[in-house]
Amino acid sequence: LPCIGNINIINKIQSTTGSTCLHVACYYGHRDMAKILLDYGALHSIRNLRHNLTPFEECYREDIKELFLEQTKSYTNSFDYDYIEWSMTGDDLLKKRREYRQAIDVYKTYDNHYLISKLLAEVIHYYLHEYLLNEKNNNDVFYDKTICEQIETIEAYFKEAIEKHDYLTYFIKAYTLTNFFYKVLNKDLAMYVLEYFDTTKTFSSNYRLVNCLVHLVTLLIYHPNFSKYQYQGICYRGMRITQNDFKQYQLNQHILNRAFLSTSIDREIAEMFAGEGQQSQMRYTPYDHNPLQYSCLCQYLIKQNSTAINIESLSTKPDEKEILIIPFTVFKIIEIKKNYLEDLEASISIEILLEECEDQNEIENNETSEILTLSSFDNDIKDTKKYIKFKKQKFVLRNIIKPMISITILLLIFIFIFTFIIPKILLNNLGYNVTSELNKDNIGGYELLLGCPNILNRSTWNARAYLTRMNLKVSPVTEIVTRHLTDLKPIMNQQDCIKKIKDLQDFQMNIRGWADIGYNFLICSDNLDQQQIYRGRGWTYTGAHCIGYNFQSLGIAMLGNYNSRKSLHTFKSLIQC
Question: Which of 16, 9, 8, 23 is nearest to 57 (CA)?
């Protein structure tokens, strides 16, 4: 090691293993080698390609984990974090939440557009231009060339929020646009914000950074349109959870989330993110084959109206049907189901049921404020005649308001019909198929023959909503156009396939300006030389794959290994349908 002049060689992800040297040393229990690598400066935070785990998360020996903890105490690196406390457990978390809400209560006064513009300008100038770019440079080992472009797009959203006086809408668009922004934002929230408001601790982090983080959250919480998107009810979060993370979930324990939590109103979508049915492909210890990670589904019961918002209509990925839980919410763990104990092949290994803890002080304050706004005048009335007169006025006012509300609702219904329903019918008559923000996974009325292969729906690969569609002029088609997409790995797992297909759709819609992904179907190789068929535009809609033939042919893209017998068999079974 002393002979190696470039530390990046140590931190390089090896093509043969998909891991760094530190990953390998930790996974196979080589303590001495792990210590040498850590002392030499090997990064803790790099995640391996196949399992998305850090070296710390791949450790099964406690003495190796101690090496990480000892080094964390003696040396901290702002960008090299291997283990983050995404949540906090304890008995007095409602008090902690209340203290945080009281501390940020001052931001309620920021209803002035000029002041909000100044806050967002600071977010753009410091958080985007200085801090995020510095994060990118510090992570040069796995530098993504698109990060600068993503930061520019996020900046454009924040500028539009200033121009259109609509922070909530454009923050959600920025948050859901890329993986980079929301991951860094949530990491920073988890690491810094609560400690900033903790008077028992000495705060040493960057004040400007924490100030920006507080602005980003509080401007959302106190936005005047927040109530329009409030959500109460059940939502689901799917994730691959490590042994270290699972240990903090104990029955009847209280837990507070330090960052935003992305959940879905649709259980099936959450199960997909959890890795449903893929437990056998997850990471196990090398010798005794104990699981290092599990497929996990969390079910949240949201009770209060200031806890979560339904961002489906605002998100750049509406098909995820996302419910966004605000940071610093307290839940109680009411049930833990370890399905893997009864069935090793259970589609979901662990299920955790959480119920929001209601803050009685907050409820009472809300009720008091409502009573004061409507009835404070009653308490000031000392004269009986004036009191009776006031009650009559309220009765008359209510009788006027009720029919006005009914008339308003009828007008809104007529506006909706003439704005959305009638134009859609006219466009359908012209051969167009206009969608709402949620595209449905149907086969367009095409009757499949017996023995046809399984075709994965668009929701499987998290497809964006298409803009418009036109029906094929010839059905069934007599011509097939195939394209092999190059520059891809010959063998890919399902996550690789989904990412490549999603990236292809984003490129064709964002850069080329198409209405959807160009192909009707995509065939992608999975591990063990298996093939999966993914629905693009489907059977009956015109693609964008071959000029002059789009209206009379189906376009099929081949990703990964297309030379094998199974690849050809999958292709043949598809076109025979």
Answer: 23
* CA pseudo-torsion sign 281, 285, 290, 293: negative
- Identify which of 84, 78, 64 has the alpha carbon closest to the alpha carbon of residue 22: 64
Q: Which residues contact 333 (CB under 8 A, 6 or more apart)?
A: 249, 250, 251, 252, 253, 254, 255, 352, 353, 354
Instruction: Quote the pTM value.
Output: 0.57
Per-residue model confidence as pLDDT tens digits over 41-62:
888 878 888 888 888 888 888 8
Residue spans of beta strands (DSSP E) within 195-349 = 233-242, 254-257, 261-264, 293-302, 308-310, 322-325, 330-338
Average pLDDT of the chain is: 78
- The SS3 call for residue 45 is coil
Beta bridge partners of 521: 535, 556
Q: Quick one: which H or E segment has residue 102?
A: helix 93-103
What DSSP state is assigned to residue 508?
I
The tokens describing 125, both together, are 């100038």
What's the DSSP call for residue 227? G
Contact 273, 238 (CB under 8 A): yes
Residue 4 clears pLDDT 80, i.e. is over it: no
State which H helix or E strand residue 155 sits in: helix 147-163
First to last CA, the chain: 59
Whether a cis peptide bond, with omega within 30° of 0, leads into 476 is: yes
**C-alpha torsion sign, points 122, 125, 126, 127:** positive
Instruction: Report strand pairing: 308-310 vs 479-485.
Output: unpaired
Beta sheet of 479-485, edge-to-edge order: 455-456, 531-535, 521-525, 553-559, 479-485
Q: How far apart are CA 43 and CA 45, in angstroms?
A: 6
Question: Which of 23-37, 316-330, 520-534 tops mean pLDDT?
Answer: 316-330
Half-sphere exposure of 301 (CA within 13 A, CB side): 12
pLDDT tens-place string over residues 67-105: 887 776 554 444 444 456 677 777 778 887 887 777 766
* Residue 114 and residue 275 in contact, taking contact as beta carbons nearer than 8 Å: no
**H, E, C per residue of 405-463:** HHHHHHHHHHHHHHHHHHHHHHHHHCCECCCCCCCCCCCCCCCCCCCCCCEECHHHHCC
410-429 tens-digit pLDDT: 888 878 777 766 666 665 55
Regarding beta strands 87-90 and 254-257, do their DSSP bridges make them parallel or antiparallel, or are they unpaired? antiparallel
In one-letter notation, the amino acid at residue 464 is R
Pairing outcome for strands 455-456 and 293-302:
unpaired
